[in-house]
Sequence to fold (278 residues):
Amino acid sequence: MRTSVLSSALLLAGGAVAGCNGKSDACVNPDASIVAHTGEPVGEEVVHNDITLYITKPDEADPRTQARAGSAVLFLTDVFGLALTENKLLADSFARAGYLTVVPDLFNGEPAPGDINVPGFNTTAFLEAHEPPVTDPIIATAAAYLRTELNATRIGAPGYCFGGRYAFRALSAGTEGGAFAVGFAAHPSLLTAEEIGAVEGPVAVAAADQDQLFNAAARAEAEEVLLGVASPYQVNLYAGTQHGFGVRVDLEDAQQKYAKEEAFLQAVKWFDRFLVAA
Ligand SMILES: *[C@@H]1O[C@H](CO)[C@@H](O)[C@H](O)[C@H]1NC(C)=O
Ligand SMILES: *[C@@H]1O[C@H](CO)[C@@H](O)[C@H](O)[C@H]1NC(C)=O
Fold:
């Protein structure tokens, strides 16, 4: 009798803290219904060390949150940054999945315009102004905030387009503020073979099949390099998608909407597998 009560208690405790490694009952797997495509963001912005951080917190009472306690998501945006509602909504979706989520403003209040083809916007100059020596320290500041102010012990970085490169960089101890636990990159841009080869943690990729930046040749090269790294990796290719599909799609296009949701769930499952303590 006593033993069975004790083991039930242990099972319950185990369910609450054991994370999501094969324990789908304890982890409460999210599904596509938690992805917000439209609507109002629910998080808030704070300024820390001159960097704006969008913070979106999970519901403490939700078993999903309890299963993922201590783990956090540092969301690395595309060039449209915090000005793009879809980025905040996607961060909110990670929070609904149970992850405390922080999105740093990587562009000091001046992201790229929603349409980068507008006259006067110089993409080359913009990218030159946001090279790793500028961007890595911003991400390091956000990570430090997560660790010291929000008590996160393990950080996973999902990155999109521009941010995808930094999801890789953040997995290298050689990067300032690096050595995050887990990375996920959707349609990364400007990513180098050296950066892929330097990862020291599990990394997953969501790739579009119609992407001029992360195209078939770039994917093949990435896979070649990943074969040589010691960490687990996963590369998913989504049909009927274009660069940016992880963040913004034509919601009237059922295949694009499906792919965006699947790429989000790919990230959540990847973090559940490798980020949440076993
Ligand atoms: C865009 O910026 C690059 C790099 O700063 C510069 O070389 C180029 O002349 C600029 N182009 C225009 C049209 O201003
Ligand atoms: C972080 O931990 C400290 C010390 O246990 C605690 O006082 C503080 O309230 C925690 N902060 C958050 C945001 O949980």
